[in-house]
Amino acid sequence: MRNTGALIFKGITHLSLIIWTIISIFPLVWMISTSLKQRNEIFTNRSLIPNNALNFENYKDAWFQGDFNIYTFNSVVYSLIVVFCVVLFASLASYAIARLDMAGKKVIFFGFMATLMIPIPGAFISIYIVVSNLGLANTRIGYILPLIAAALPVSIFILKAFFDDMSRELEEAAIIDGASSFQIYYKIMLPIARPALATIVILNTLSVWNEFMLALVLFSENRLMPIQMGLSVFVGQYTTQYELLMAASTIMVLPVVLVYIVMQKQFIQGITSGAIKG
Amino acid sequence: MGASSFPSTKGKFKSKRKQVRKRYLNLTYVLPALLLFILFSLLPIIRTVQYSFTNFNGVNKNYDYVGFKNYLTAITDTRWWEAVGNGIIFALLSLVFMNTIALLLSVATNSNIRGSKFYRVVFYIPPILSGIVVGYIWKWIYEPKGLLNGLLKDIGLGEYTHVWLGSIDTALYAVAVSSMWQGVGGSFILFLAGLQGIPKDLYEAASIDGASRFQQLRYITIPSLRKVYTLVNILTILGALGIFNHVYAMTMGGPGYTTEVPALRIYREAFTNSNFGMASAFSIVFGVMLFILSLIQLKLSQKKD
Amino acid sequence: MIQDHRVKWRMFILSIIMLIALTGCSSNSKDTTSNDKNMTQTNDQTDVTNKKDVKLVFWHYLNDRDDLLKEMASDFEQKTGIKVDVQLFGGDGFKQKIMASAQNNALPDVMTFAGGAGDLGQLVEAGNVMELSDMKDMFDKFPSTILKTFTFDNNNIFGVKKFGTYAIPMDTNNMQFVYNTKLFEKVGITSAPTTWDELLTDVDRLKAAGIVPFATGIGSWVAGSMAAPYEVAYLGEEKLVNVKKGDESLVDSGYLKVLQRFEDLYKHGAYAEGIATMDLPAAEQMFVNEEVAMIFDGSWAIGVFNQMNPNFTHYDVFQPPKPADAAYDVKIPGGIGVPLVIDNHTKNKEAAMQFVRFLVEKEQQQKYASKSFNLPANIEAATSESGMTPALHNFSLGMNHIIENGGSYPDPSVETVLQKGIQLIAIGQSTPDKVLKEMDVELQKALKEKK
C-alpha cells in the first residue's frame, strides 16, 4: 500500500520535472532552431526544424559582424573581476553585519537595502558623472567599480540571511580555541556558506554578462564594450536580423551555462561541509 | 584572543574599552563595500533626491527648484497608482505561483532523484537568456498567429485562441506569465541553496521515526527555510514591482494603460517626456514604498522566530 | 589580539592592492589603438592644418547602414586625409548615451541625433551643439521646410533662446500609406483610394475577400503620426498650433473627427489582430508576408521591406485619403530623417564641418540613397531619379506635402494619452469622446504646470 503510494508520488514528481524541463528549454530550443534558419525562412517556416541542412553560416556571420572575439574577451574579464570582488567584499561585509559586534551596523545594512529599492531613473547617468569626475571615463576600471557596487546590496542581503541562520556553536568553540574573527570568517564561515556563495557567483556572473546600459553610456570606444554590444548590432531602429540575433544569443548563453554547471559542483561540496553545521 | 569581538563574551572591566575599539575596528570588514556603495549608489540616490525637487530636464543644468510640486503631482496622479496596482498584481501572482513552483522544483531536485543534476541546470536556463531575446520569443508565442494559438488549435481547443497581448483582458496576465517563467529560476536556486544548508541527519532521524515525505516537508524543510523564504519573497516583490524589460519589449504598457507599470512610467517621464525631476520624484515615492514593504516583511518574519 | 590586527591589516592592504591592480588594468586600456593606416594618400586640399593629426569621432545609431557609413568615412579620408572613427551604438540606448555625454560635455565631434526638435532644443540650451551659420552656403541645397525642423527662431515653441540652425539633414522621410498592389488587384481595386470613403469601401472589399486590410505600429509612436494628417485636415495648421499651445479649446476644435477616423477603421474591421500592442516592425513583417494589404509607414520602410524579402516589390504608395468633411488639405508627417549635428565643444570644428559637407554632397547622397533606400536630403540628388524605385519616388514626391508646423503640446504626456487612446479605440475599448476628454484633462494639467 505504502509502496504504491510512494511509486505514484515518484511518478508525479518525475512527470512534473519533465514538464517544467520542456517549459524551461523550449525557448532555448526555438532560439537555436531560429539561429540555424535562413532569413527568408524565419517567418514562413514556423516549425522547429530548419528547411535546409544545418546552416552554421549564421554563427560565423554573427561572430564576425558582432565582433564577438573582442566583446567575449571583455566580458570574461569584467565578469571574473567583478564576481571575485563581489564575493570577497559582500562576504566580508555580511559576515560582519550578521556575526560581529560592529558600530552602526543597522544603518549600514539598511543603507544597502535602500539602494536595492529605489529605481533611479537613469542611474547610469549619475554613475557616469561620478566615474568621469574620478577621471575613469572610458576605462575598464570605471566600468568594473560601479558594477561591483551595483551587485553588493543583493549579495549582502542574500549572504546575511545565510550567515544569520548559522548556529553559533562552531563559532564559540573556535573562540575558545583562540581564533580571531577573521580566522573564523575564513576557516569556518566561508566553507559553510559555500552553497550561498555559489548562488552569489551565479547571480552576479549573469548580471554582469547581461549588463548593457551602463557600458553603453560609459564607453565611447567599442573595443571596451561587453558582450551585449554584440547583440545590439542586430537589433535596429528599423530592422532586426532575427537569425543573427538568435545565433549571437546562443553564443552568449553557453559560457553562463558553463559557469552554472561548475558552480553546481560547489553545491554538492557544500552539502558535505554543511553537514557539520547543525 | 579575538574573543572580545563577540557580543556574547562576558567582558571584564578592562576589556570594555577594547570592546568599544573593536566595534569600530570591525568596520574594516565593510570598508571596501561601503566605499563603493557611497560612490556609486549613495551619490546617485542623493542626486535623485535633489533632482526630485527641481524641473531638471535631464540635460540642461540651469534648472529651478520647485519645492514639493513634483511630489504633489506624483501622489495625486491616478495613472501612477494604477501602474503601482499592476505592479502589485505582478507581485502577488509571483509570490503565489512563481515561488510555489520554485519551491517544489527545488525540493524535488534536492533529493537523490534521478537526473537531479540535469534538472538543476535546465531550470536555470530561462534567467540566463538576455532580455531582448526573451521579449522576442514571448512575443512570438503570444502573436495572434503565434505558437500558443497554434498549439491550442492543434490540440482541439481552437475556440480558446485569443489575441493575448493585444486585448485588455489578458495582456497583463500574459506579461506576468512570461516574467514569472523567467523568474522561477532565480527563486529556485535560492531555495536550493537554502535546502543544501539543512543537515541531512534531520531527515534521517525523521525517516527512522517513520515520518512521511509530506511530514518531513512540513516539519523539517519548511521551518528550516523560513529565513530563505523571507529573502526570496522580498526579492520577488522587488523584482515584480520593478518589472520593466518584459513590459517594454512586449506591450510598452498597452493596450492603453492596461500593462502600465511604475518603472515604465519613470522611464517615460525621464527619457521620452524629459521630465527628469518628475521621474526622480516618482522614483523616491516608489523607493520609499518598497522600503516600507520590505521592512514589514522582515519584521513579520522576525516575529515568527 | 595582535595576530588578529595583523590579519585585518593584511586584508585591508589586500583590498588596496586589488584596487590598484584594477586601476592598472584600466591604464593599458587608455592607450588608444592607433593602428595607423599609413596615410600615404595625396592631401589634395589644404584648408585644414596638420590633417594627419586630426581624427574625428562620429557616432550613429543606424545599424543597417554601418558599413555604408564606414565606406563613406574612408572615402572622406582618402579625399582629405582626415580620419573618421565611425562608432555604431544600436538599440534603444542611444538617446540616453547622448543625454549622459551631454551632461559631461563629452559628445563626439559629429553625430546623428536621435530625437525630436524639442530634445535637440534642450541640448542647444545646454550649450552642447554647434550653431551652423558657418555652413549657410549649404542651406539652399535642402528643401527649406526640412531645415526648419531643427531651426529655432523667436517663434519656436520649445522655449529655445539660442536662435539658429543646429542640424544638417543626411536624409529626409515622410509617412504615408503603402499598399500591396497584387492584393488590391485580386479584389478588383485598380487604383489607390483618394478619399476616406473610398478607403473604407476598399477596406470592406478586402475584408469580404478574407484579406486583412490594415496594420501599423499602433502600439508605438506611430499611432500619433497616423493621426497627424487628419489633425491638419480637420483643424488646419494654424488652429492646430493654437490648440496644442492651449490658446484654443481642444474639445471644441473638431479634434473629435480625427479620432473618429480610427473608430471608422475599427467599425469596418480594418485592423489586423493584435493591433493594440503591435509595433511597426511586426506590422512590416505582416505586410511583407502579404498577410495584410495596407500599412501606414515611413519612406524608410522601402529599405526594411527589401531587407526582409528582396523579391517583394509589388507595392505602391498613396497619401492619406482626405475625408469629405475635412476643411483643409491633408498633409503628411515628415522632415529630417537623420539629422547631423556637431559638438559645440569640438576641437576639430573645421574638419567636422568638412565631414558633414561631404556627407551631403550630391555624389555621396546619391550613393546613400541607392544603397540604403532612403530619401536623400540634397535636392540635386533627390531630383535625379537614378537609383530610386517607383515607390521611393512616390515617397519623394510626398516631401512637397509635409506638415510644416504641427505644433507641440506643453508636455509630451498629452501625446502619450492620444497614443494610448487610439490603441483602445482600435480594439473597441474606448470611444473618441472619451479619449478626447482624457487628452483635454492631460493638456489642462500640463498647461497648469507650465505656469
TrEMBL record, chain A:
CDD domains: TM_PBP2. It is a multi-pass membrane protein. Its main location: membrane. It is found in: Cell membrane. GO terms for biological process: transmembrane transport. Signal peptide: none annotated. InterPro entries: MetI-like (IPR000515), MetI-like_sf (IPR035906). Residues 72-263 form the ABC transmembrane type-1 domain. One of its GO terms (cellular component) is plasma membrane. The keyword Transcription regulation does not apply. It comes from the Bacteria. The keyword Transmembrane helix applies. Keywords: Cell membrane, Membrane, Transmembrane, Transmembrane helix, Transport. The chain crosses the membrane at residues 12-32, 76-95, 107-131, 143-163, 196-219, 244-263. Pfam families: BPD_transp_1. Belongs to the binding-protein-dependent transport system permease family. This is Carbohydrate ABC transporter permease.
From TrEMBL, chain B:
Keywords: Cell membrane, Membrane, Transmembrane, Transmembrane helix, Transport. It is a multi-pass membrane protein. GO terms for biological process: transmembrane transport. The chain crosses the membrane at residues 24-46, 88-109, 121-141, 171-193, 228-248, 276-296. One of its GO terms (cellular component) is plasma membrane. The keyword Protease does not apply. It comes from the Bacteria. It is found in: Cell membrane. It holds the Pfam family BPD_transp_1. Residues 84-297 form the ABC transmembrane type-1 domain. PANTHER family: ABC TRANSPORTER PERMEASE PROTEIN, INNER MEMBRANE ABC TRANSPORTER PERMEASE PROTEIN YCJO. Belongs to the binding-protein-dependent transport system permease family. This is Sugar ABC transporter permease. It comes from Paenibacillus mangrovi. The lineage of its organism: Bacteria, Bacillati, Bacillota, Bacilli, Bacillales.
From TrEMBL, chain C:
The keyword Transport applies. Belongs to the bacterial solute-binding protein 1 family. GO terms for biological process: maltodextrin transmembrane transport; maltose transport. It comes from the Bacteria. PANTHER family: MALTOSE-BINDING PERIPLASMIC PROTEIN (PTHR30061), MALTOSE_MALTODEXTRIN-BINDING PERIPLASMIC PROTEIN (PTHR30061:SF50). SUPFAM superfamilies: Periplasmic binding protein-like II. This is Sugar ABC transporter substrate-binding protein. Keywords: Signal, Transport. Coiled coil: none annotated. It holds the Pfam family SBP_bac_1. GO terms for molecular function: maltose binding. The keyword Lyase does not apply. CDD domains: PBP2_TMBP_like (cd13585). It comes from Paenibacillus mangrovi. GO terms for cellular component: ATP-binding cassette (ABC) transporter complex, substrate-binding subunit-containing. Residues 1-29 form the signal peptide. InterPro entries: SBP.
